[in-house]
Amino acid sequence: MKKFSSFLLLVFLINTGMAQDKYEREYRIRKSQFPEQAFTFLDTYLKDVKRLRFYKELDSAKTSYEAKFKKDRLFYSVEFDEEGLLEDVEILITEVDIPNSSFQAIQEYLKSNFKKFRIRKIQQQYTLTAFQNVENTLHKAFQNLIDPKINYELIVAGKKDRDFQDYEILFDSEGKLIRLRKSLPANYDHVLY
């Protein structure tokens, strides 16, 4: 029994360690390959958009679909699962778009966990919660409303020991850490098995 418990603990620790890495690939797809239900949700918001592109995203844990476009001078990424259900809406922002207290908390976290770091990308994230419906979430995102439930997703090149590594770090609206995952560089061309 003791060996079995040790084995289960080892399997749990290995799985936990692996879950913190992000192996993600995006492939551009045609509109006809995008989930119909997802497009139906988006259709009313797609007036006056520019650079509308559709993508299939393969992650180490799931498959999802994204519509990326520019609307009202902002770059949007709207992500859906395989069934066409909304997962989140992300807007590309800069540091000045984050409230000072939240950005200060984010900076403190980065300074205390990395020897050196550089923020490569910041996205404001509106996620679908149990208390909101799809239309409400999309409305808040496209109005760019500050909501206490928004998150900030940062892509950071950080140095912990010797080399720089890319990380995807998710913070809540107050700047508290939600998730940290190692990320492969965007131009990673090797096949992953």
Written overview of the protein:
- This protein has 193 residues and is α+β, with helices and mostly antiparallel strands.
- It has one domain (2-183): Roll (Nuclear Transport Factor 2, Chain: A), CATH 3.10.450.
- Helices cover 24% and strands 40% of the residues.
- It has helices at 2-18, 36-42, 100-113, 134-142; strands at 21-22, 25-29, 50-58, 63-71, 74-81, 86-93, 116-127, 151-159, 164-172, 177-183.
- A ten-stranded mixed beta sheet has the order 1-10-9-8-7-6-5-4-3-2.
- The longest helix is centred in the N-terminal third of the chain and has 17 residues, at 2-18.
Brief characterization of the structure:
Helices cover 24% and strands 40% of the residues. The chain has 193 residues and is an alpha+beta fold.
